[in-house]
Fold Isoprenylcysteine carboxyl methyltransferase family protein.
Amino acid sequence: MLWYTLLLAAVAAERLVELAVARRNAAWTLARLGVEYGSGHYPVMVALHTALLASCLTEAWLAHRPFLPVLGWTMVTVVVLAQALRWWCVTTLGPYWNTRVIVVPGARLVRAGPYRFARHPNYVAVVAEIAALPLVHSAWLTAAVFTVANAALLAVRIRCEDTALGRVSVA
């Protein structure tokens, strides 16, 4: 359990780094007259991701979920690959990447990096991580509940992003 707790702490620390990058990028895009869309669902997204980390730890500790090596190490691999994909998205979008939906008028859609292969590759990483992170330590209930909750949130979020990105030129 100690190693799982440390993994969750590392993911939480990574999230704080993401928020710092997002804050810096938001200032950059807003200074260029960026327009924010869908700010109403943002607190729900933050709450979901925060509750996921807490629930992973709570279920693993209170329900005495075991670490099953084949499942656990496979899920650690998925979590690491999800982080790699997420940061590939962040570096590809540069100052345009954000945890909020902010569009700069006149900007062009990015079609480089992982965006050559998928319209929303960051959400591939999010979906994989939400399913895999709890399963590292057999927290199957957390994996199921947060996968369903995230699907509902992503339905709103992707619709919001697509609407916002519809106002951007294609490069």
User: Anything to note?
Assistant: The beta strands are 35-37, 101-103, 108-109, 169-170. The chain is about 70% helix and 5% strand.
